[in-house]
Design brief:
Elements (H helix, E strand, L loop, with lengths): L8 H6 L1 E6 L6 E10 L5 H21 L8 H15 E5 L2 E2 L2 E2 L4 H10 L1 H12 L8
Antiparallel strand pairs: 1-2, 2-3, 4-5
Length: 134
């Protein structure tokens, strides 16, 4: 088997488009909502994940504790930051009746307020099959 055919990093860098579905009906929105994300093998994901881990480790060292001192809330905030940075574009997203620009602050706000959307984005980012070329 030629394992080079399973190289995912470059496709992960380019990102992929996913459609967002209604959290209850699992139906498409009208118009469809699309989000572009990079994958877990992208440099952006890796760099951000490592930076967040380093931040947690510095906090642990500063507090003089041998065990990790990160709360569940801090871990959730870190995950939201990671997913927000890995969300590179979106289409047809509105908030309070107005189009919402895709930038880090807006993505983070939406992911904080809509856990169901955060779950769909998290699933896509970590699904390597979405980045594997045929």
């Amino acid at each position: 088997m030629d394992l080079s055919k399973l190289e995912i990093a470059s496709a992960s860098e380019e990102g992929t488009r996913i459609e967002i579905y209604h959290p209850i009906t699992e139906q498409s929105f009208e118009p469809p909502i699309y989000v572009w994300v990079v994958g877990v093998d992208s440099q952006l994901y890796q760099k951000t994940a490592l930076a967040l881990q380093n931040k947690a480790m510095k906090k642990m060292i500063k507090s003089g504790r041998l065990r990790m001192s990160m709360t569940a809330e801090e871990q959730q905030a870190n995950n939201i930051e990671l997913y927000a940075k890995c969300t590179v574009n979106w289409e047809n997203v509105e908030w309070e009746g107005k189009p919402l620009l895709c930038n880090f602050e807006n993505v983070r706000m939406v992911l904080n307020k809509l856990p169901w959307l955060r779950e769909q984005i998290e699933t896509a980012i970590s699904d390597r099959s979405l980045f594997l070329q045929d």
